[in-house]
Amino acid sequence: MCDKTTEASLETQRVSPKATVEPSQYERKRVPGMCIKCKVIKPNVTIRRSLYCKACFVRTCVVKFRTALSRSRKNTTVPRTKLMVALSGGPSSSAMLNLMADFQRMELRGTEAQSRYEDIIAGHVDESVLFPDVQDSLISEIAISLSIECRITKLEDVFATNDEAPLFIKLVQSTLAPGALKDKICAHLVKTNDSISSKKRLQSLFSSLASATDREEMLDIIKTLLLIRLARKAECGVLLMGDSGTRIATKIVSLASRGRGFSLPFEVGAESSWFDNVVVYRPMRDFIMKEIAFFNMWTKQNSVVVPTFTTGAPKRASIGRLTESFVIGLDHDFSSTVSTICRTMQKLEPRKQALNSLPCLTCGMPVENDAQAWRSRLTVSKPLAVEAEPTIQSNGSNDVPSDEDGLVRADITDVVCYSCQNILTSAASGTTFPGATVDHFLKSKGPGDAKVDIVNAKQEALRKQIETFLLNDNE
Amino acid sequence: MPRQCEICNNARAILRRPKTGQRICNECFFYVFETEIHNTIVDNKLFKPGDRVGIGASGGKDSTVLAYVMKTLNNRYNYGLDLYLLSVDEGISGYRDDSLETVKRNKEQYGLPLLIVSYEQLYGWSMDSIVEAVGRKNNCTFCGVFRRQALDRGALMLDLDHIVTGHNADDVAETILMNLFRGDLPRLGRCTEIVTAGDGYIGRSKPFKYAYEKEIVMYAYLKHLDYFSTECTYSPNAYRGYAREFLKDLEFVRPSAILDIIHSGEAMQVASDVQLPTLAHCERCGYISSNALCKACILLEGLERGVPKLGIAKSARHAQELLANESAMKSAGKAVEPVHFELLRGKAQAMREQRQMKEQQQECHDCTATSCAFACDDDATGLCSSSKETRRCACADSNAETNAAAS
Ligand SMILES: [Zn+2]
Ligand SMILES: [Zn+2]
Ligand SMILES: [Zn+2]
Ligand SMILES: [Zn+2]
């Protein structure tokens, strides 16, 4: 009986959202052995100790998505715009694309016959440079089958020069005094030249990183960055990220473990306006992986397996891998762990300072003041006998020390977030990183309130400093 | 080929530093470990000169190293602190007896005065007798509540300004993770605070907040410190066990993770709704409490009435119901009425005044006699009454000026 309905499109199964969002007392009553919603059909799945038949389950998912999306919309003011759905091809983002396509169809069929979103576009980051086994054709097919246009950007595009990324960060570390490695991060800001392909650059970046944790983190950073750029380019004012509740819980724990507490509210929040011109929503936050798997199965939604650096590796392979196995285990033993972590942490407001912070040169997230000073007070690396600091460290942030070969280098410590400092300090010297927000330094903004002025003054000083570092790789 | 120390580039590296992975020598390890504690103390302004500071001493590695390092730093940097060892005897046979012996040896080794307060003496109940009454399931609740209060009682008996405890970075990171898993946002904000108010009167702090457990053990080992290394025989909270195991794995994957978590925790403090509850005191014992009866008094009441579940009741109403239902039950009757906090505070105040009087007596250099009655110094010149008589003398005048300038 239920099978028939799942064959039809999602909207035919819709019931009035209001009735489902706020079930009446009568509806809450359970009929033993029957679906919790319709109470007449034998259930097919148990989600959070509730039994659903196929049709009611799919319908519940549709309503849940719609509710999450409109709640995010209510919390942010976005004019009518195009919307991009980030599509990795994994189960969650594929389900999200399906649900969004359904949402758009319903909107167009509604009384106003006009959706609040001008158009829906899927955005995909092609990772084949690192994971050649993924069939990206399958991923565009997911979009095509839902009649949605799919824009693709390649991971290595992060090294293609454009207005948003005019310069890259080339680490200079070998010149620092030993034992003082962690006190300052120095780099050349370089333009790319064409003698090295972006692909090669990307591969060499990942092979220069010190650990699987660093590689994982870098990959996440680059993907987010590219999706934001892709959305801006497609003139989408809204970007949907497909993080499921399970994924968000895992992310919260791993972000916290990597020292990203300051930027965490922006990175997992239901909605975030941190990036210029693009608002990020996470409408899959109330879905757990199990729900997504059943939804995809019953709506015949295809998805692919998205590989990671640590797929199939033991749990201690990286922080990401470890956290994933831990959160799933904890959720198994204490069944509400995932939803508890998500619910509370999404209440966490970003601190005021964070809203006015400079964006990190590497990841684009807010940078705390004096993060490095905090660290060096607690990881003392100077010997007892040495009173004065080694020469390189005695330079204030505005000084521009000269290298022997005539190149200049910048002290970028203050514009790299605490967590990215971890990556940078352990990466091989000479590694070139894509700059997430180099454009921020080169662009000066119009004056705003007093707080913004301070930031701008700082940015202005940095910009002046950086202008003199415009170098070509082969200089 | 022996490796050189990555810090001094001179001596031979003998260890890999758990916190940073650097290969360093013995001396550099001591130096960086101690300096980071010093930085923590200075950056957070934990003490002021003349403070009387009690070191919560259990005889375990953390508090033993804490006592040693506090004494070392106090001498090295002239903090000007009066240090005391303050121990709580929970009355756990086998475990506590041996660890208290260690504390007593520490007292001699470090030359610090020691005060031991016991549950038995304060409340009439030892942990062994509590476990006998409540079983092993909730005994940690009792122990935690009683210990907290016992330390405050001890602090008042010594008239301390401050208590330091041996909580280390691993403990703090673990607590942050636990509050994250439990979704406890207010606690998540509070648990990273380095100074907490105890009785609302005596501050408590954790100078080891950023010190790795592994390094504390390493320090104790390399300094040959005398400590007691058995865990409490009554097992701790199981949920904490999950967090602990996860933290150990994280530390393995990335040694800086413990510090990174604390860094995250500090950044995740809930800024806006830090609304301190209004200070109220327990009707029975005068301890700081947001309810009519403090947690310790409720637990004691439960023990006395033979309803030990009372204190671990889920809500205040539940507790009231339990009380009403079981009120007919006969008292198990160990009844020691805990000394009222007002009394303790009063005694502490009196001790303070007495000390101040002594100090001020010495300040009067006009007369060599130390017995001059200072109470009559109502114009606050810092001179005793007999010296005031001879004020016209030039030397007395200059003395009066210096005293006024000093105050
Ligand atoms: Zn049904
Ligand atoms: Zn960053
Ligand atoms: Zn050394
Ligand atoms: Zn009380």
From TrEMBL, chain A:
GO terms for molecular function: nucleotidyltransferase activity; sulfurtransferase activity; tRNA binding. It is found in: Cytoplasm. It holds the Pfam family CTU2. GO terms for cellular component: cytosol. It comes from the Eukaryota. The keyword tRNA processing applies. Belongs to the CTU2/NCS2 family. SUPFAM superfamilies: Adenine nucleotide alpha hydrolases-like. GO terms for biological process: protein urmylation; tRNA wobble position uridine thiolation. Pathway: tRNA modification; 5-methoxycarbonylmethyl-2-thiouridine-tRNA biosynthesis. Its main location: cytoplasm. It comes from Coemansia spiralis. Residues 1-23 are annotated as: Disordered. This is Cytoplasmic tRNA 2-thiolation protein 2. Keywords: Cytoplasm, tRNA processing. The keyword Lipid metabolism does not apply. Plays a central role in 2-thiolation of mcm(5)S(2)U at tRNA wobble positions of tRNA(Lys), tRNA(Glu) and tRNA(Gln). May act by forming a heterodimer with NCS6 that ligates sulfur from thiocarboxylated URM1 onto the uridine of tRNAs at wobble position. Prior mcm(5) tRNA modification by the elongator complex is required for 2-thiolation. May also be involved in protein urmylation. InterPro entries: CTU2, Rossmann-like_a/b/a_fold.
Automatic annotation (TrEMBL), chain B:
The keyword Nucleotide-binding does not apply. Residues 281-310 form the Cytoplasmic tRNA 2-thiolation protein 1 C-terminal domain. Keywords: Cytoplasm, RNA-binding, Transferase, tRNA processing, tRNA-binding. Its EC number is 2.7.7.-. Pathway: tRNA modification; 5-methoxycarbonylmethyl-2-thiouridine-tRNA biosynthesis. GO terms for molecular function: nucleotidyltransferase activity; tRNA binding. GO terms for biological process: protein urmylation; tRNA wobble position uridine thiolation. It holds the Pfam family ATP_bind_3. CDD domains: CTU1-like (cd01713). InterPro entries: CTU1-like_ATP-bd, CTU1_C, Ncs6/Tuc1/Ctu1, Rossmann-like_a/b/a_fold, TilS/TtcA_N. Its main location: cytoplasm. It comes from the Eukaryota. Residues 53-241 form the tRNA(Ile)-lysidine/2-thiocytidine synthase N-terminal domain. GO terms for cellular component: cytosolic tRNA wobble base thiouridylase complex; mitochondrion. It is found in: Cytoplasm. HAMAP family: CTU1. Plays a central role in 2-thiolation of mcm(5)S(2)U at tRNA wobble positions of tRNA(Lys), tRNA(Glu) and tRNA(Gln). Directly binds tRNAs and probably acts by catalyzing adenylation of tRNAs, an intermediate required for 2-thiolation. It is unclear whether it acts as a sulfurtransferase that transfers sulfur from thiocarboxylated URM1 onto the uridine of tRNAs at wobble position. Prior mcm(5) tRNA modification by the elongator complex is required for 2-thiolation. May also be involved in protein urmylation. Belongs to the TtcA family. CTU1/NCS6/ATPBD3 subfamily. This is Cytoplasmic tRNA 2-thiolation protein 1. The gene is CTU1.
